[in-house]
Amino acid sequence: MSAQATARRARPAAPPRRMKLIATLALIALVLWSALTIDIEIDRILRLPEGLGLIFYRMFLEKGPLWSYFPEALAGMIESLQIAWVGTIIGAVLSLPLGLVGAKNVSGGFVSNAVRQVLNAIRAVPEILLAVVVFIPIVGIGGTASAYAGTLAIGIHSIGTLGKLTAEVVEGIDPGPVEAARAAGGAPAQVQRWGVLPQVMPEIVAFWLYRFEINIRASAILGVVGAGGVGDALNQAMIFRRFDRAGMIIIVIIVATILIDYVSGTLRRRIIQGAGAKRIHGEEIEEPSFVGAGAGKEGSGSG
């Protein structure tokens, strides 16, 4: 039997056309029901491009961005980076043990399911809700207290996401090193250290970097509700109709986000693919020198 015939048999059968039509009609009905329930005004949606164009004109074309406001905008962006970084560290440190315990091949079924539900509950609450409902009332608002609220909200929410991703990575490991560590008489902590972590840490660190990128955007949004960072300055500029300041802040946010995404993406590729990842596609990999030396010795010995 050919490989193509085997692939055809392995491929699942396509759903009947009637089911496709029913699913399409049900999706359209759901969209219409949602639009009618929340009273969407079509004329306001049609005027949206005009409103966006007006805001763009006021920020960047009418007077232009206020370049003298660049130091203040940069200071707010640095504060957002600090909030995102510390929040990511909190999430990474606390999510690693929870992710290990939440993996079914590490702990029992009941324990892993319980930890998974805790992670799901944490992930279900968005950062902005954690900041407004929980941490701003606790630590207060204004000054450094706002930054504390944003940092804690981002850190707690990151635990849920990073813990789930860690558990999924651990469940996909090769069981060979784990069995070897257990056969050598290793304790449970030693099995995790030498059998599990070396396999999963590159991917987990890449997840941490990717989460840092997400947290930068989240920290800018949290500033709008008084949780510190560049979003606070942007909110104040929009409240007082200082569109030139708002334009400068948006430029700083865009440039900083692009640079950090580039650096983080490069680091993630380096961690996952290794140092020689770029050479595989273009350059021919030379044989190690000891191969040729060994061949020469064999030739001289046979001669």
State the order of secondary-structure elements, H for helix, E for strand.
HHHHHHHHHHHHHH
Percent range for helical residues? over 70%
Number of strands: 0
Percent of sequence in beta strands: under 5%
Task: State the oligomer.
Answer: single chain
Question: What is the CA-CA span between the terminal residues?
Answer: 50 Å
Q: CATH homologous superfamily name of the largest domain?
A: MetI-like
Based on helices, strands and strand pairing, what is the structural class? mainly alpha
Mean pLDDT, all residues: 83
Radius of gyration: 27 Å
Which overall shape is indicated by the principal axes computed on the Cα atoms?
Answer: globular
- Based on the structure given, which CATH architecture of the largest domain is correct? Orthogonal Bundle
Which regions are unreliable across 5 or more consecutive residues at pLDDT < 50? 279-303
- The CATH class name of the largest domain reads Mainly Alpha
- CATH third-level topology of the largest domain: MetI-like fold
User: How would you characterize the largest beta sheet?
Assistant: none
Q: How many domain regions? A: 2
Description of the structure:
By secondary structure, this protein is mainly alpha-helical. It has two domains: 17-56, no CATH class; 67-275, MetI-like fold. Helix content is 80%, strand content 0%. The protein contains 14 helices and no strands. Helix 10 packs antiparallel against helix 12 (243-273). It starts with a helix and ends with a helix.
